Amino acid sequence: MIDIVDCTLRDGGYYTNWDFNENLTLNYFQAMEKLPVSYIEIGYRSLVQDGYKGEYNYCPDYILKYARQHMPSKKIGIMLNEKEVKIDDLEKLLSSCKGTIDIVRMAVDPANIKRAGETAARIKEMGFEMGFNVMYVSKWMTEYPDFMTDVASLNGKVDSFSMVDSYGSIFPEEVETITRHLRSVLQCKIGFHGHNNTELAFANTLAAIKAGCELIDTTITGMGRGAGNMKTELLLSYFSSKEGVSLDFNSLSTTVADFERLKEEYGWGTNLPYMVSGFNSLPQKDVMDWVTRRFYSINSILQALHNMKDKKGDNLKLPIFNSDKSHFDTVLIIGGGPSGANCATAIKQFIKKQEDKSICIIHASSKNAGYYNDIDIPQFFCLVGNEGHRLEKVFADFDLNKISCVLPSYPRKMGTYIPQQLIDKSFELKEVTFSPLYQDSHTALALQTAIELSATTVYIAGYDGYDGLINENERLLTSENEYLLSQIVDKRPDIEVATITATKYQGVKNLSVYRLLID
Amino acid sequence: MIDIVDCTLRDGGYYTNWDFNENLTLNYFQAMEKLPVSYIEIGYRSLVQDGYKGEYNYCPDYILKYARQHMPSKKIGIMLNEKEVKIDDLEKLLSSCKGTIDIVRMAVDPANIKRAGETAARIKEMGFEMGFNVMYVSKWMTEYPDFMTDVASLNGKVDSFSMVDSYGSIFPEEVETITRHLRSVLQCKIGFHGHNNTELAFANTLAAIKAGCELIDTTITGMGRGAGNMKTELLLSYFSSKEGVSLDFNSLSTTVADFERLKEEYGWGTNLPYMVSGFNSLPQKDVMDWVTRRFYSINSILQALHNMKDKKGDNLKLPIFNSDKSHFDTVLIIGGGPSGANCATAIKQFIKKQEDKSICIIHASSKNAGYYNDIDIPQFFCLVGNEGHRLEKVFADFDLNKISCVLPSYPRKMGTYIPQQLIDKSFELKEVTFSPLYQDSHTALALQTAIELSATTVYIAGYDGYDGLINENERLLTSENEYLLSQIVDKRPDIEVATITATKYQGVKNLSVYRLLID
């Protein structure tokens, strides 16, 4: 049987920022101790200090001892990022691990294979088993022409060499070809670390084993960066059924159940954006960020991926918004909250009362726009990400003469989508002047549009905020909106900014549209 | 390029009972019309009347027309279950479909292949394109020895013949071998319908295509019975990236997003029980029932699967409960609701007051048992499914002399798990006498235990029921408990049954433990 390297905490940490609760880690370690897994890679060790990362990104000594205590019979490992490691730091990084951990692996960019070999040799001298996880296997043949011969220089310096399918884009036949090649030039163990973007992690793993790999990386429930990994429970139940390997299903199911609960929260696993990024060998980091924040539609992520694939940040440079310096005394920003619909009648009454003043509407979101198609003043639509698609149905009922679209400044990371009939009515902002953060958000776009229109009064409706228990995305959106509202209040004291429908947002004046109707 | 048969509604209906909301079906049909999918199989047609099944299990004519209206350029199909279809019924089943649908497929058991051929010939005569989906491909070689030659009799009777990996258990090499064989004996198109239990649906599909399959079944997000199917979006993005097939990602992502939302509710996709059933070629129906109701732990499902694999309903016959006819005047049943913990002090006070009477506790659930380990009367534990595992921690603090375990009668479908130290304290019920339904539930077990102990008074605590919005499982549990309580009240008027803590359950007398303390 081949050796399984379970790296659930190390690779799964990308979702939890390497914090895991102790009940879960205890169940996990106890399960690993009882299962036919050879190596347990519990986390990273690192000297990098930027930003918060949790316990299993640093694996302080007490964590190593805790793991050792519960897995006395297993080989325990940690991983280093080769590009972060200076040879002079090794003593500081690793000396206290001696006697507690068995194996050190390094994540290695194929471009740095020679430098990595020197570091590896030193780590081996310190008495650790030494393994390489070398990234981007699907690009070795095409983009790293020397790499496949350079690897021979690693002989004697590493105990194992694992291919990492970083993009989740490799196919079984390629795995076989590369494994056979490595087998012919390397004397160490060969391994495979599969990602599941295209649901080929298991087929690729079987191909790797067939071609002579002896080390397979897996994680419980596939928890791991992006679309996730080869699943430990899948490989183990395969070995149990097909090779008669004895399995403690009680231990396995206990830890699987823990991670399934975590998966409901964090939602790893593949989906259409990961599939597309996989088939096109695109980096996982951005996709993971877009997918997990759940702000973006699948379609806008796909758009961004196609831009990435075509190596362009954007596909459309637009005219700058309001270069003819139109002016409105009052702008009314309509957000996507329920009050934008519920109070539409009153808001439209208010607009009609302003006959002598110049007034316009800015739709921060398209959600409530349909309630305002019968009001005959200029209306501006903020197009962020996929908003253009959502708007297509809205525009069907609109007199196109009274609308314009405003987009973030060029280049737009998520790409540009504008419904065909609106392309000549679309403009981009030169810059967002009042806030350093969240410049691509709906709210920043709407407020900056008001600034560009030289408004002296900005009334805001449909910014209700959230009631009761809120989820992570609602919390983020609340912070974002409150921050932007406070920024415009601070930076532009010359503009009167007020919400005119019920709101939970703090830090901005709150009036009532019904009171305004009486004035 | 091969022909894709998208059968999302037909196969996905196993999760929704073939009801889908109209907004979802409209988006789906509009997407299909724009995507490079050749056939859209929208549902079953059936004359079977038992039990409720929704629109897409019967596909009445208006549904066929609705599909046709939105997919004018596509081949539209429905499926029949061969075992339900009599040749004389074909006219009734299919005549009104003429001109609206293009293809009729039949789900066929390989044992009935000859009979199915006759039905197929008749359907072809009616003017429909005729396809077979033949089940259990992973068992054809071993369990249907004549089948691989019998299929030749289908030549001229069917236009396509698809292998169905019913158990989700086949491997790519097997798919290739069988495809090549079919290719050599059949003149029609060969197809493949993959299930994703072992995450090999895509690898198997690629193998099928490589070996000459021309028809591939897929569903959006893999929605389909059990672990689900080959995903339409995965195969399409593969063809888009690797074969340059043009894709309308906007349409695709719109319908994918709809089904992703449905998936969050119904939770199809593979998991450890589906993997194990896949590797062991076990039927999906029970596993799906166990997994989707979410009453059972992963481990108890695995236990049941292993029993199924070993062709035994159970692995342990226990002594019959209370064969020495112990008797208690009063039994106190403690359920898992919060009041079982919150009112523990009062309940224990009440027990102490009963000094002269014989009284015992029956723990319907182990959840609150820990609150009663300091009370020195006999205590009975109901072990259903995985309860034994959950109890292991509870028992650590218990004086084992005062406890016994009661299990459902033999054989137990979910198998038997009893903690080692309790095996000689465990008994099974002979039968549940007071209710025809839910005999294996915690509540039935607890009430029958009370009957076996000849109790004249049954007090129930920790049966709180649910407040506010409840989910499907909570609704089922509510119905189950209310039914069982009403059954014992009806069938055993000689026993006084009453809840003594706050409860939402109807139909049983409700007292207060605090009032009982004053008596």
Q: Under CATH, the topology of the largest domain in chain A is which?
A: TIM Barrel
Mean of residue pLDDT values of chain A: 91
Q: Please, how many helices of chain A?
A: 21
Poorly predicted ranges of chain A (pLDDT <50, ≥5 residues)? Answer: none
End-to-end distance of chain A = 82 Å
Biggest sheet overview of chain A? 8 strands, parallel, barrel
Tell me the CATH architecture of the largest domain in chain A: Alpha-Beta Barrel
Taking strands numbered 1, 2, ... along the chain, how are they ordered across the largest sheet of chain A?
A: 1-2-3-4-5-6-7-8
CATH class placement of the largest domain in chain A: Alpha Beta
Keywords (chains A, B): Manganese
GO biological process, one term (chains A, B): L-leucine biosynthetic process
Domain Pyruvate carboxyltransferase (chains A, B): 2-263
GO molecular function (chains A, B): 2-isopropylmalate synthase activity
Account of the 3D structure:
- Chains A, B: This is 4-hydroxy 2-oxovalerate aldolase.
- Chains A, B: InterPro entries: 2-IPM_HCS-like, Aldolase_TIM, PYR_CT.
- Chains A, B: It holds the Pfam family HMGL-like.
- Chains A, B: GO terms for molecular function: 2-isopropylmalate synthase activity.
- Chains A, B: Residues 2-263 form the Pyruvate carboxyltransferase domain.
- The structure is a homodimer of 519-residue chains.
- Chain A is elongated.
- In chain A, the strands form two sheets. An eight-stranded parallel barrel of chain A has the order 1-2-3-4-5-6-7-8, surrounded by five helices. An eight-stranded parallel β-sheet of chain A has the order 13-12-11-10-9-14-15-16, covered by helices on one side.
- In chain A, strand 3, helix 5 (90-94) and strand 4 (103-108) form a beta-alpha-beta unit.
- Chain A folds into two domains: 3-279, Aldolase class I (TIM Barrel); 330-518, sialyltransferase cstii, chain A (Alpha-Beta Complex).
- The first copy, chain A, has 21 helices and 16 strands.
- Helices cover 40% and strands 15% of the residues of chain A.
- Chain A has helices spanning 8-16, 22-34, 55-58, 61-70, 90-94, 113-125, 140-143, 147-150, 172-185, 201-210, 232-243, 249-266, 272-279, 284-293, 298-309, 339-342, 344-353, 387-395, 442-452, 472-491, 513-518; strands at residues 3-6, 39-44, 75-81, 103-108, 129-134, 160-164, 189-193, 215-218, 330-334, 359-363, 379-382, 403-407, 426-428, 457-461, 496-499, 509-510.
- In chain A, helix 9 runs parallel beside helix 10 and helix 13 runs antiparallel to helix 14.
- The first copy, chain A, is α/β, with parallel strands linked by helices and 519 residues long.
- Chains A and B meet through helix 10, helix 11, helix 12, helix 13 and helix 15 of A and helix 10, helix 11, helix 12, helix 13 and helix 15 of B.
